[in-house]
Amino acid sequence: MEAFKLSPDVDVRARDFAIGCIGAGMIMADNHLEAYRQAGFDVAVIASRTEENARAVAERYGIKTVHETPEALLADARIEIVDIAFPPDLQPDLIRKALAQPHVRAILAQKPLALTLQEAIALRDEARAAGKILSVNQNMRYDQAMRVLKQIIDAGHLGQVVFAQIDMHAIPHWQTFLADYDRLTLANMGVHHLDILRFLFGEPTEITTVARTDPRTQFTHSDGITASTLKFANGVMALSLEDVWSGPREEGFDDDIHIRWRVEGTDGVAKGTIGWPNGAPSTLSYASKTATGGKWVTPEWETMWFPHAFIGVMEQLQYALKSGTEPELSVADNVRTMALVEAGYRSMAEKRTVALSEVPVE
């Protein structure tokens, strides 16, 4: 029924470069490496802070070489791409050590790239000076519903977008290291949503963010539940809610965990869900005056954000190296997402709307 071909998942255009993985926690073990296994990427070596953990993950995925330390992995001349899954306070040091290795051609880092916007900008500039690719794992851009939504918007089937909303009521797994930071939800969960809004609609001009603490989160934090209103240069208004409380979560209580989204335009509407909280594929339905005769159409797929989106994350980096082009998830682009997060925190602290012009990145 669709007026054009929709592509919820990427085609793998390159598998040419050997990967060294640093980290053996959930995000690496259950998502990166499972995605790479399915796509046929070459993971040559692995290391972590705890060698025993790295060996267990290596056995699980048939990785032949385990190094005792991340530094030993970085010195391995076989490695062309370094994939880092480390906390953001430790990640910049590893990135800098990787940039210094002549055989390392590209680095995939986690988000947030660093604890401050200033350090993220410094890493961007250092990678540029080294002539190497630094890419940041904004994996929600490869969620199947978000990819299809982007295709529908770019094809003009919604007309001029007027309004968008992401409505999250779900409970993230907060990694233990987050208890040491002063920022929580916007930096570690909302960053997905703020980045995807940039991906869909371009650069925002202003953001207003409010927050309160989350009753379930026991460690000290400034932002538990967050709500942001954004305006974009093209006139789009967007709302992003991160409700990490979402109600009692206890035996006998029927909760309603979900993430729903909606985009309204002059010629159509798209809506759907993000399947991550429930371990299901994300969904999308859309009705367009020009493409569907005003009737609702619901394309379907079986792949999911976790782990399948991570195929796209590594594929775009492999292809950038092979083709000599800029990666889709460039560090320069990610710095702009970090600037948006920074503006959100400034809005919370100062209780006002913050223009993005107040947070320069150049």
In short:
The protein is α/β, with parallel strands linked by helices.
Distance between the termini: 45 Å
Strand order in the sheet with the most strands: 14-13-12-11-7-10-9-8-15
CATH architecture label name of the largest domain? 2-Layer Sandwich
Report the CATH superfamily of the largest domain. Answer: Dihydrodipicolinate Reductase, domain 2
Q: Helices and strands, in N-to-C order?
A: EHEHEHEHEHEHEHEEEEEEEHHE
Oligomer: single chain
How would you describe this protein?
Helix content is 32%, strand content 22%. A nine-stranded mixed sheet has the order 14-13-12-11-7-10-9-8-15. It has nine helices and 15 strands. By secondary structure, it is α/β, with parallel strands linked by helices. The termini are far apart. Helix 1 crosses helix 8. It has two domains: 140 residues, 3-Layer(aba) Sandwich (Rossmann fold), CATH 3.40.50; 183 residues, Dihydrodipicolinate Reductase, domain 2 (2-Layer Sandwich).
Task: Summarize the helices and strands and which ones pair or pack.
Blueprint: E1 19-22, H1 26-39, E2 43-47, H2 51-61, E3 65-66, H3 70-74, E4 81-84, H4 91-99, E5 106-109, H5 117-130, E6 133-136, H6 144-154, E7 161-169, H7 185-201, E8 204-212, E9 225-232, E10 237-243, E11 258-265, E12 268-273, E13 283-288, E14 296-297, H8 309-323, H9 331-350, E15 354-355
Parallel strand pairs: 1-2, 1-4, 2-3, 4-5, 5-6, 7-10
Antiparallel strand pairs: 7-11, 8-9, 8-15, 9-10, 11-12, 12-13, 13-14
Helix pairs in contact: 1-8, 4-5, 5-9, 7-9
